Amino acid sequence: MTVRDTVDAARPAPAGQQPDTGAEPAIRLRGLRKSFGTAQAVAGIDLDIADGEFFAMLGPSGSGKTTILRMIAGFERPSAGTVTLDGRDVTGLAPFERDVNTVFQDYALFPHMTVLDNVAYGLRVKRVGRRQRREMAHRALETVRLAEYGARRPAQLSGGQRQRVALARALVNRPKVLLLDEPMGALDLKLRTAMQTELKHLQREVGITFVFVTHDQQEALTMSDRVAVVNEGRIEQVGTPAEVYDAPRTAFVADFVGTSNLIRGEAAEQILGRSGTYGVRPEKIRLVGSPDSTAAPGETTTTGTVRDVAFTGPATRYEVELDAGGVLSVVRQNDGGAAQDRYGNTDRVRLAWAAEHNLRLADDASTA
Ligand SMILES: Nc1ncnc2c1ncn2[C@@H]1O[C@H](COP(=O)(O)OP(=O)(O)OP(=O)(O)O)[C@@H](O)[C@H]1O
């Protein structure tokens, strides 16, 4: 169960690396590259995903996540590198020769078939007998809590139910690995949140390795055991959700997982007395009052002017233009009732945070 992130094997183990127990990882990628013509979609990936992990690939549109997934599934042939599943090199094998199933964003259900027949379809192709495949399909529908819906057609289901049918259709094959490409992409926010919880429970129940692709940081953080942050065909960082959020290694990771809150250049010199790029999470910053007030000893502090106030219910977000240059977001929980200080546009404020929350960032993975 090792994880090697792409950046540099010679460096100390990056955050998120699991101890090497000698067990074969479910998925091992080595030197994986893919070019389309002259464009490089995946620029060299080394990654191990452990058996039974819920693993997220998080990155912006066009960063190469889907291409990585398609190479694991066998739909795309790598330009270089290898894909090993459970200790077996499958790089040259067709999708159906791999112990992997994929759930696509559009679910790809057959509209003319019943839900039960959709789920049983893969078993029919594998020539499983009719009675057994109906039983297995029914059990898979039970797993996704749709046992009563077997006789319906996909058009008679909600988006979330269709998504679960697609899952049941993949689960019925009992693959070692399930790949999910933006599985919640077509769902509205409420359903999406409900499905996230359900999917996580389901994964624990069936014990299959899940790898899912998303551009939604919230989804990646809530659902996964570990996250790989993908940027321009490379993995910038691999770690647990807490590790990539609390200890981002690069400015890209700090920005993409969370809010961009960077102190750099002249502002870093003035506020921190050091050069370089630093990040500080918005919820770690306190607004302590007017610029004349003082911060606690050992805190980093600076002054600025409120430029925007956004009330979001449980919290309020302030955008503060710093006197030293740049803008910082500050999030305050609205838990203080009427006694809580409130600030408005153009108010002059002092900001303070514990020095340990200054995150030293590299500008990109090559200097991390
Ligand atoms: N079949 C193809 N032919 C040419 N270029 C492709 C092909 N598939 C993907 N690409 C390019 O490779 C890059 C990575 O694409 P990919 O679909 O892997 O990104 P992604 O991170 O999954 O994006 P999204 O979140 O938008 O799905 C993009 O620049 C894309 O245009």
TrEMBL record:
Residues 1-24 are annotated as: Disordered. One of its GO terms (molecular function) is ATP binding. It comes from the Bacteria. The keyword Nuclease does not apply. Keywords: ATP-binding, Nucleotide-binding, Transport. InterPro entries: AAA+_ATPase (IPR003593), ABC_SmlMolc_Importer (IPR050093), ABC_transporter-like_ATP-bd (IPR003439), ABC_transporter-like_CS (IPR017871), Mo/tungstate-bd_C_term_dom (IPR008995), P-loop_NTPase (IPR027417), Transp-assoc_OB_typ2 (IPR013611). Gene3D superfamilies: 2.40.50.100, P-loop containing nucleotide triphosphate hydrolases. It holds the Pfam family ABC_tran. Residues 27-257 form the ABC transporter domain. SUPFAM superfamilies: MOP-like, P-loop containing nucleoside triphosphate hydrolases. PANTHER family: SPERMIDINE/PUTRESCINE IMPORT ATP-BINDING PROTEIN POTA, SPERMIDINE_PUTRESCINE IMPORT ATP-BINDING PROTEIN POTA. This is ABC transporter ATP-binding protein. It comes from Saccharopolyspora rosea.
